[in-house]
Amino acid sequence: MQTPTRDTVLCISLAGRPGNFGVRFHNHLYRQLGLNYYYKACTTGDLPAAVSGIRALGIRGCGVSMPFKEDCIALVDELDPSAQAIDSINTLVNTDGHLKAYNTDYMAIRQLLLSHSVDPARRFVLLGSGGMAKAVACALRDAGFRNGVIVARNAEAGPALAKACGYDWQATLGTLCAPLLINVTPVGMEGGPQAGDLAFPAEVVEAAEQVFDVVALPAETPFIRLARQLGKAVITGYEVAAIQALEQFVLYTGVRPTDAQREAAAQYART
Length: 271
Description:
Blueprint: E1 9-14, H1 21-33, E2 37-42, H2 47-57, E3 61-64, E4 78-79, H3 81-84, E5 91-95, E6 98-102, H4 104-115, E7 124-127, H5 131-142, E8 148-151, H6 157-165, E9 168-170, E10 180-183, H7 202-207, E11 210-213, H8 222-229, E12 233-235, H9 237-253, H10 259-270
Parallel strand pairs: 1-2, 1-3, 4-6, 7-8, 7-10, 8-9, 10-11, 11-12
Antiparallel strand pairs: 3-5, 5-6
């Protein structure tokens, strides 16, 4: 990045627990490509005021993470189809005060289901019912997955998500097993109260064929580490984070980095 000036374009993120992945990823690409941009991670206790600030201060883009992905919807001017279809957003783009919302999580998950050749006939169990769970469940639905169960304690959000996508719902895992296991909860997240916990019991992981954890930090959660040890195919939250961040970068700058540039930024962001 160039030395910041009055012309430096600012992008930010809003999260309940801000992390460094996006900061390092975006700023590394700005430096590689010689763009006069700067990215800063933020949090807020007043979401409407924060979104008004994005508009008023001319902040170009904003990544939106838990717990703001749904509450932001009422505060923007336009929803891209990627956000409208799942009623959840993770990216704001500010064009002369007009805020348009996207969901690059959804885009990333669709790409990963294809690149990892996940069979749509495979039965799955998905833990979670929040904004990211919506992105995953809708991506599965739109990729042709028909046989799945949403497991979520939230007695409103869980059944609603399952019904919207045509899946079954139950409040707890119980004895449920499936070939494809997907964690879309904070279990295993670095710095969280369940950082050392498994998203699924070990015997359920052992019975599976493939696992998918959307938790990006650490790069390998206890769930992913166990699955690798057992020889299971894995999709990691790190992969989701890198692809969704790339699509955000393109939306903010209009520039698409090469695969090598993206991978260099992702590797830098992990360290």
